[in-house]
Structure formats: structure tokens, C-alpha cells
Design a protein that fits this description.
The complex is a heterodimer of chains A (546) and B (401). With 546 residues, chain A is an alpha+beta fold. Helix content of chain A is 30%, strand content 10%. In chain A, the strands form 4 sheets. Chain A has a 5-stranded mixed sheet with strand order 3-2-1-6-7. Chain B has 4 helices and 31 strands. Classes of the chains: A alpha+beta (546), B mainly beta (401). At the A-B interface, strand 4, strand 5, strand 7, strand 9 and strand 10 of A face strand 6, helix 2, helix 3 and helix 4 of B.
Chain lengths: 546, 401
């Protein structure tokens, strides 16, 4: 660069010791909203500076020409003589040549184009976008102003803001959030839960739990790095999803069934709604590989990918005696994390197993009596002498699968798009948008036996108040509606489980049953959700370019 | 688009210069690798680069459109938007500010719901800052004017002379990635749409006021006139035009000013386009494939004056500055788009001339037949806006997936 006297300078010579307002201009600019505006605004900023005696030395105005051919140092000097006032620091700079100018323009993203007439002769005008830069004492650009946003008041206010910063305002490095995780396996199960069976070799250690938790929240575990386990099993939504009836996978692919809650999944003897797996270590691979869930093409491809993620360096080795990612290790790590999601000591547990007579409200106590008596729920949602899992680990036809298969596909839909605001949607609109329905036959799809049609696993009822919507297809939205469904005897058809029958419950009894179901919420929900939400979410950190 | 061509998202260049030998023809395509739910795009303030984003993978593709405007090049890809922004998912609108781009998010990496933020980048692709939307429990200093502060995002526009940004609210990844029929039939999912428009301080990026605009307000178009302190938006679910305006006291308000078609048929208004003199507003309704023209010379009382069916579905509208040419594309979202009846009216790019009374079709490109995919947003590569000299206009179109 050249200053007003023709002395050579580098741009950085005028940066760093003051807050700088830098405008790119050229002196023959005819556009009133271009360089003349910049000069005018800088003049007004200069006036403010001169009014505020203390600031003169801390702020510098710089006008840099992007027309080195015309704007020689003497041109800039005479411009300066007409603008710059004594006591203010306003530098009027130019460059030796277009070549010297080019890297500066490139660095500031200031594009210019000389304009030519039809015969290719230069018109002397330069097409450009007005840009004025505010640069702090660490030589960082803090704001950029265009014509529409270049006002002296704004620039002045920004200058004052930077000057008022007591310390360099470099962004704080992200603090790792405190980790309240329960990374060691609980020695004693919570009240109401039995000892957990853990397969030999799958013992949860703090390293395995931490690794499993990291995997669980890692969106890079899906084919296109968009969904993690936690996005269908959302911690703050009961480790399921309250936001939809049945899940969706990568690219929004439709999954037929509702995401099961992972609370106390460690105790499940049958996994998936159709009960097709029985080991957590094996189960985890199904969603990872399903084309409509996380969509990974193969076990090996995912293991190879994990091997390239630097933030996993050493973690498998620490958890598995020096051995890296394998199919089994991914299974054990995720299962170890899932085994920490145990939740008991609910009001019901304290009342039934802890001897606290007042832990359960009178309504919930009446509900418990109905649950184990008139309503007969306990026939499948079992309660033991010392503990209760609220499941018989079996599969039954409760009529929900039949009801779905028999339902008409053409009905108006009423939605509540905002609290109190409803909209009825024409059946034709819904059916035109619907993809071809995929049938769901439940256990029959696994066993091949027609008598297993529409049989689904009995889920535990622990934390059931947190895990709406309900049933394998998420077709029932609330607990009162669940009670209503069973009170009505389910959807009658030949295969319906004999235990599903009209119950003849009175209104008060239904309310008592709901009160009972709401008493099954564990005492550690807040801690588990807090632990989960403190987990860093794995997202792509690599950058193709630039 | 699966099953079509190379199945990848791409930038397609179309010659729309009347009289050109390739007028109305595709003159270039550039695949970016994979499918990302390519959606919107925006030119940088100097119009040298076109930023286009995928609202599924949250990748951002930066195209060099100045070196050879007829042949854009992929200049850079930002893969780490979610990590850099602190968990924002689904970069939607890419809006030019001086030297930088303001990106609106649609979702987040914690639950794929609608809570989200706006994110600033420099023109050369460096992350600057994340501005979370005001939400119940964390209004960030904003005034909650009505019932809602949902924290959802969608579009953003500026009224610089009022130092105002206006943002709208759609829905999270869970819903926009879901099959539309499945979504409509799921009452839990349908509860999760945006009901707000937020007024921001443009300079500080602080939210000032949260306005109730129930029913998923989408595109925002602000008036151009020097004293026209208002913007329009339309609500996808309730099929209404809303006016966002500064009242006599200069306070920002929102008001429903017109129905669009028959709301019970969910015509689903999508793109809107305001004329340069602020007198006309084109409103596309996706379900019925129609465009409607409203006289908005009194912005408080829009009157529909014209409608025409463009195709089986229609999404974006882009008009020339003089209002004489208008272009339409068909695609909304991969899992919402119609799949039948097959033919040229399903996935298309159509060019029309408008004489003030009637739209006359000048050309149509069948994007499935051409093995391109599902066309979404269009951007004019009008370098002439920044030069007084005539430049052969090219208009280009972002996205086919």
C-alpha cells in the first residue's frame, strides 16, 4: 500500500493499535449510495470522535482506494485534506497497482469490476458493492456495513461497544458440561425392581457405559449422520418419542411401529414389539442395520466408520481390554448404557414394597385394587411378591393390530394444530398423500404361525405416564383412552385374547385406574434425563472445504 | 430423487433469455453427491456465490456462480453446521447480510423437534454466531405478545430501514421428513407446528417481540416501498395471508387479512412473491397446484383477482423485477411430494409471461423425464443488478433431488 505521502505500508501497519473503520472507495465513484455515502458516514463518525476527546487515539478511520490507476497518493491526499480534521486519525490509502490490490480485495471479499463500453474502452467507473468494515484491536472484523445499513449512529455505537469491552472478546472455548452421569452400575436395584440378569462377558463397567452412552447420542451412527438412537428414544420424552405415533428413520422413512421406551429395557425378556430378540447386545444391531431406521449397509461398514472417528480413539480399547470396535463390543457398550436406565422407587413401589401407606393417593390405591381385581390388568401386567415389572414377558392379541387392519383408510381427520385451534382435513386430502399402507401381523411375521397374528409383547407399565402415545402402533394418545379401550373389550375378532373383555368400569373407576398408572413413575427420572442431556451429541465435525 | 437419474441433489442451470437458441432448456447440471433434502438457496450480498442447503443432512453447498455464470462450480461444502452451531438442524433460509449469511434453522439435534435458532456465517464459510429463537422459559428478552413462544423457525427477511428482522415458524425434522399422509393422520405430530412470527433487532440479533400467527407461517416477503413498513406471510395449515406491520405507534402487529382458497381442503399455501411496486402478491398453493394473484395495494384488505392451475402441485414462484415473467417449480419436500399421476405436471419447471391479466406458458421442463429430480427453488443469476451495463441474463434453479 501507499499512504498519502507515497510511502510504502502494509495494511496491518494501520491495524491493531486502534479500533479501525475501514471503507473501500474510489474517488471518481458516481453512485450516491456508494463511496460518497461511505465518505459521508466516516466524516460523521469523525465528528463524534472529535466531540469525545478521550477517544481520538483509540479509533482510526481508513479509506482504501480500489482504483490504484486513478487514485494516486496525491489524489488521496487531496481527498484527505477536504475530509480529515485535525485531531482525528483518518488515513487515506491506495496501492501501487491492481496486482498489489488484488490480495487485499480477495481477503476482504470486496469484489469490483471495471466497466467498459461496447468497444472495450474503460469507462473509468467500477462496479462494486459498498462495504465498510469495523475491525477491533485484535485485527478481527467485527461488523460489515452495506449501503442499507451504513449509518453513523450505528457505526459509532458499535465502535463504543468494542471500546467498552474490558478484555479481548475472543469466544470462550466451549466448556465441557458437567457430567452427572451414573457411570457406575448401581449395586442395589431401586425399590420394586429385581436383580438384573447380565450375560457373562457383558458386565457393565464405567468405560463401557460411557462408551455406550456416547454411541447412543451419536448421529453419525446412521447412514447419513442424521439420526442417533436418542432421536427415537428421546430422554426428555420417556426414552421414546411423544411427538409421533410411529417412528421415522433416515430420510424420513416410515417405520411401522411406536418406539418402545428404554426405561427398564434391561429387564425385558423379549425385545421389539414382536419379541424377535431376547438379548440387548444383539437387539441394538437391528435398528442400526434396518434400511428404514439407521440404514447402515453392513456391520463392517459401520465398524470401519467408527474406526475413522478420532473422538473414539482409545475408547473401545479402554472398555474392552485393548480391543477395538467389533460387532460384540458395540452391542455390549450400548447394552451397558441401556442397563443404567433403570427406574423404580415409584410411589407405587414405596406403598407396596416399602411399607409407606401414604405414598399412594387414595385414588391410586383404589386403582391398584381394580388393576389387580375387577379390571384384571395384572393378568398380563404382572406384579410379584417383592418386585414388579408389570409384564408377563409374553405376546398377546389385544385387538389393536386387528383394529388397525380393519380401519377404513378414508376418513376426515381432525387436528388440533395449536391449543384450542382445530382444523378438519378432508379425507381425500389425507388419502391422496398417504403412502401405500404396510401390513403388520405382529408375532406371525416371526413365527410364521397364523395363530400368532396381531400378537405383540406386553410392555412394562413403569413410567407409562411419560411414554405416550401408546400401543405398538402409537394409536392411543392418552392413558384415559387406553383404559377406555380395554373397558370396551378391545376390538372383537376371532383371535382376540380371552382376557380382553368388556370390563363395565364406572367413570370414577376409570379415573382411579389412570391415577394408579400415573403412580408408576420412578424417582430418578430427572437425574436420568439430566445425565442424558449433558451428553455431547455426536455430529460431523470434519469439513470438506474450505 | 430416488429412481431418477443419478438420484443426487443437483444445481440445474436453465436458460431463460428469450430469443436464445437454448431458451427454456437445461444448459447445465451439477450433482453434489447424495441426497440432503435440498431446499432453499440464497446468493451472497455480492452475488458471487450461491449457498444451498439440505434440511435433512444439514449440509451447505456453496457454488461459485460468478466465474462462469452459465457453469456454476461447487466451491465448498460445509459438513459441520450442526456441530458448529451448537445443535441447530435443518438450515433453511440462506439470507444475505453484508459480508455474511444468516441461516434459519428448522430443528435441533436433541429431539428433532421444532426448537431451533438462526446461525450467522461469513461469506467465506466461517461460523460466526448462533441466535436461538425465543421460547417459553427463555424469551431472551423478547416480549411475548400472545399465547405462543414456540421457538420454531423457518424464513427470515429484513426491513433495514426499521432495523428489523422478521422470522416465521414451520416444524421440526420429525415432521418435515415424515410422509405427508402419515403426518396428517398423526394428531401428536400435527400438534407440533409453529404458531409464531418473531420481530428481531436486525443490528443486535436480539428478539424483540413474539407475535401469534397460528398455523405454520412460512415464507416472508417484505414490501419494498420506502414507507411500507410491512411484510406478508401465509400460514400453511390454516390457508391465510397474514400481515406483519408496524402500527401507528410503530409497534409491530400481526393480523390475518385473507383466506386462501378453501381452508378445509388444506390447499397448503407455500411460496409467495410480491411485485416490485408492492401492489400484487402471487400465492402458490401446493395441494391444488394453483397460483393465485392478490391485489395487495391495500395490504390490510387483499383481494384475489386471478388464479390458474400450474400443475398437479406447485411450490416456488419467482418473478422478474418488472413482473412480466414468472417461473414455477413443483417440489415441496421429498416425502410430501405427490407421486401420481405420472407425467409432465408432476415435477416441473415452467416459465410464464404475465400481461397483467393472464399467465401464458412459454416453456415447461419435465424434471423426471429429463432425469433431474424434484425441482425446488429458483434464483436469478442477475449480475446486472450490480452493474449499469447490460449482461446477458441467465436464471438458474437450485435443487433437484
Amino acid at each position: 500500500m501507499l499512504d498519502e505521502t507515497g510511502r510504502a505500508k502494509r495494511l496491518h501497519d494501520v491495524l491493531g493499535d486502534a479500533v479501525v473503520v475501514l471503507g473501500f472507495v474510489y474517488t471518481s465513484c458516481p453512485d450516491i449510495n456508494g463511496c460518497p455515502l461511505a465518505n459521508h458516514v466516516l466524516q460523521r463518525v469523525q465528528s463524534r470522535l472529535l466531540e469525545d476527546a478521550g477517544l481520538g487515539a483509540q479509533v482510526r478511520l481508513v479509506s482504501l482506494s480500489f482504483d490504484p490507476i486513478h487514485d494516486r497518493p496525491e489524489v488521496m491526499r487531496s481527498l484527505g485534506e477536504s475530509f480529515a480534521k485535525p485531531g482525528a486519525d483518518w488515513r487515506l490509502l491506495t496501492t501501487v497497482s491492481d496486482d498489489a490490490l488484488a490480495p487485499i480485495l480477495e481477503a476482504y471479499g470486496q469484489s469490483i469490476q471495471r466497466e467498459y463500453d461496447a468497444g472495450g474502452r474503460p469507462l473509468g467507473t467500477i462496479s462494486h458493492l459498498l462495504r465498510v468494515f469495523l475491525i477491533d484491536r485484535e485485527k478481527r472484523i467485527r461488523n460489515v456495513y452495506s449501503s442499507a445499513l451504513l449509518h453513523a449512529d450505528t457505526v459509532w455505537s458499535d465502535v463504543r461497544t468494542i471500546l467498552a469491552e474490558s478484555a479481548p472478546s475472543r469466544p470462550e472455548p466451549a466448556q465441557p458440561r458437567e457430567d452427572p452421569a451414573r457411570l457406575s452400575f448401581p449395586a442395589e436395584p431401586p425399590l420394586g425392581l429385581p436383580e438384573m440378569h447380565i450375560p457373562p462377558g457383558a458386565e457393565p463397567t464405567p468405560e463401557r457405559i460411557a462408551l455406550g452412552r456416547k454411541l447412543f447420542f451419536d448421529r453419525r451412527l446412521s447412514r447419513n449422520a442424521t439420526i442417533s438412537c436418542a432421536l427415537c428414544h428421546v430422554p426428555a420424552q420417556g426414552f421414546t418419542s411423544n411427538a409421533m405415533a410411529t417412528s421415522i428413520g433416515i430420510e424420513g422413512r416410515t417405520v411401522r411401529r411406536n418406539a418402545p421406551s428404554l426405561y427398564n429395557a434391561a429387564y425385558a425378556e423379549r425385545l421389539f414389539h414382536d419379541g424377535r430378540e431376547s438379548s440387548l447386545e444383539e437387539q441394538v444391531w437391528s435398528p442400526l442395520l434396518a434400511a428404514d431406521e439407521m440404514g447402515n449397509p453392513s456391520v463392517q461398514e459401520l465398524l470401519d466408520r467408527l474406526g475413522t472417528l478420532r473422538d473414539y480413539d482409545g475408547l473401545f480399547e479402554a472398555a474392552f481390554e485393548g480391543s477395538g470396535p467389533t460387532r460384540d463390543h458395540v452391542g455390549v457398550a450400548l447394552a451397558s448404557f441401556e442397563r443404567t436406565l433403570v427406574s423404580g422407587s415409584s410411589p407405587f413401589d414405596r406403598w407396596r414394597f416399602g411399607g409407606e401407606a401414604k405414598a399412594l393417593s387414595p385414588a391410586a390405591q383404589r386403582g391398584a385394587a381394580l388393576f389387580e381385581g375387577k379390571a384384571g390388568c395384572v393378568a398380563c401386567h404382572a406384579i410379584g411378591e417383592q418386585t414388579a415389572l408389570f409384564t408377563d414377558h409374553a405376546l398377546h392379541d389385544t385387538g389393536v393390530g386387528f383394529r388397525r387392519a380393519a380401519a377404513p383408510t378414508t376418513a376426515d381427520v381432525e387436528i388440533e394444530y395449536a391449543p384450542g385451534s382445530r382444523l378438519r382435513i378432508d379425507a381425500a386430502v389425507v388419502s391422496a398423500a398417504r403412502e401405500p399402507p404396510r401390513p403388520d401381523f405382529g408375532l406371525e411375521e416371526i413365527s410364521g404361525r397364523p395363530e400368532d397374528r396381531w400378537k405383540y409383547r406386553t410392555p412394562s407399565l413403569r413410567n407409562v405416564a411419560l411414554t405416550a402415545p401408546y400401543m405398538h402402533d402409537g394409536s392411543v394418545r392418552t392413558l384415559p383412552e387406553v383404559v377406555e379401550y380395554y373397558d370396551g373389550g378391545g376390538a372383537a375378532h376371532a383371535l382376540l385374547d380371552a382376557r380382553i373383555r368388556p370390563l363395565g368400569l364406572r367413570t370414577g373407576e376409570k379415573e382411579d385406574l389412570v391415577a394408579f398408572l400415573e403412580s408408576l413413575t420412578g424417582d430418578d427420572i430427572e437425574a436420568l434425563v439430566e445425565m442424558a442431556e449433558a451428553t455431547p451429541i455426536g455430529d460431523t465435525t470434519s469439513r470438506s472445504s474450505p | 430423487m430416488p429412481g431418477v437419474g443419478d438420484e443426487q441433489d443437483k444445481l440445474v442451470t436453465v436458460d431463460v433469455h428469450p430469443g436464445s437458441p437454448t431458451y427454456g432448456k437445461v444448459i447445465g447440471t451439477l450433482s453434489v453427491g447424495g441426497r440432503n433434502e435440498a431446499h432453499h438457496s440464497g446468493l451472497t450480498d455480492d452475488r458471487r456465490y450461491l449457498w444451498a442447503s439440505g434440511i435433512d443432512t444439514s449440509k451447505i453447498f456453496i457454488f461459485d456462480v460468478h466465474t462462469d455464470p452459465a457453469k456454476p462450480k461447487l466451491h465448498a461444502t460445509i459438513d459441520d453446521f450442526v456441530a458448529k452451531s451448537g445443535g441447530v438442524v435443518g438450515p433453511h433460509t440462506l439470507y444475505a447480510l453484508p459480508g455474511r449469511m444468516l441461516l434459519t434453522g428448522l430443528s435441533n439435534n436433541q429431539d428433532h423437534g421444532g426448537k431451533t435458532a438462526m446461525v450467522e456465517y461469513t461469506n467465506d464459510g466461517k461460523y460466526v454466531a448462533t441466535h436461538w429463537m425465543p421460547v417459553d422459559g427463555d424469551l431472551r428478552g423478547a416480549e411475548k405478545a400472545g399465547q405462543f413462544a414456540d421457538g420454531y423457525g423457518y424464513d427470515v427477511r429484513a426491513l433495514p430501514r426499521r432495523n428489523v428482522l422478521v422470522s416465521s415458524s414451520f416444524t421440526g425434522w420429525n415432521n418435515y421428513m415424515m410422509n405427508l399422509g402419515k403426518l396428517l393422520a398423526d394428531p401428536e405430530a400435527m400438534k407440533r407446528f409453529g404458531n409464531t412470527v418473531v420481530i428481531w433487532d436486525l443490528h443486535t440479533k436480539k428478539p424483540k417481540k413474539v407475535l401469534d400467527v397460528p398455523g405454520a407461517p412460512l415464507e416472508i416477503r417484505c414490501a419494498w416501498g420506502a414507507r411500507h413498513d410491512y411484510c406478508f406471510t401465509s400460514t400453511a395449515l390454516t390457508s391465510k395471508i397474514w400481515l406483519i406491520y408496524a402500527d401507528a405507534e410503530g409497534d409491530w402487529q400481526a393480523k390475518a387479512v385473507s383466506d386462501i382458497g378453501d381452508p378445509s381442503k388444506v390447499p397448503l399455501p407455500v411460496d409467495i412473491s410480491i411485485s416490485a411496486d408492492d401492489s400484487l402478491l402471487w400465492v402458490d398453493t401446493w395441494s391444488d397446484g394453483k397460483t393465485r394473484l392478490f391485489d395487495v395495494s391495500d395490504p390490510h384488505r387483499p383481494k384475489q383477482i386471478y388464479e390458474k392451475k400450474i400443475g398437479e402441485q406447485v411450490n416456488m414462484a419467482s418473478q422478474s423485477w418488472d413482473g412480466k415473467r414468472i417461473y414455477f417449480t413443483s417440489s415441496l419436500l421429498a416425502n410430501w411430494d405427490k407421486t401420481e399421476p405420472a407425467g409432465g405436471d408432476l415435477q416441473f419447471f415452467k416459465g410464464y409471461e404475465f400481461d397483467g391479466k393472464e399467465l401464458e406458458e412459454k416453456f415447461a421442463i419435465d424434471f423426471v423425464k429429463e432425469k433431474l429430480g424434484a425441482p425446488h427453488q429458483m434464483r436469478f443469476g442477475a449480475k446486472a443488478l450490480y452493474s449499469r451495463l447490460p449482461v446477458r441474463p441467465r436464471e438458474r434453479l437450485a435443487r433437484a433431488s
